[in-house]
Amino acid sequence: MKIHSLLPACVALATAFASLHAQAHEPGAHVHGVAELRVVVDGPQLQISLESPLDNLLGFEHVPRTDVQRTAVRQMARTLRDAGDVFAPTAAAHCRLTTVRLASSAALGESIEATPADGDGHADLDADFSWTCDAPQALAGVDVDLMRHFPNLRRLKVQVAAPSGQRALDLLPGRRSVTW
Ligand SMILES: [Zn+2]
Questions:
Q1: In terms of pTM, does the model score above 0.85?
Q2: 57-77, pLDDT tens digit by residue?
Q3: How many Å lie between the centroid of ligand 1 and the Cα of residue 53?
Q4: Domain ranges of the chain
Q5: What is the DSSP letter of 59?
């Protein structure tokens, strides 16, 4: 009986995630200084997807040509793969990072998956992060420190789909908390 009463909420969340995903791929989303973050809370799972112009993270959007640029790519990948420096879910929820996937339409090498390029000279980074939380009932939000690590990023457009509902908010350099 308990399982049955939970089912509609799961279906609603899956639908919300699908519609968030569709919105994020509308054309015209590539604006330097701005990135999009989608946060989905589903039972013990926390998923965060970042879609950002590469310029926000590297200062360029092409195949790295110099040692300085190759180092910038390595540092970006290390910072994002570590994830603990940029995302802090509610500590009491005891969330463990399970997967990080990085993909870009610019061929960055390293362990960053290549995706088809748009051919307009611009390129994005898509990053997906997943956590499993041991005490999901305590999970009330996540602090996001992306802008401290990547100062070219000035605004994060955040969409949240959580059991308590959906919401949209903007993070700015002085505002880093997402709650639900
Ligand atoms: Zn661009």
A1: no
A2: 999 999 999 999 999 999 999
A3: 5
A4: 2-179
A5: S
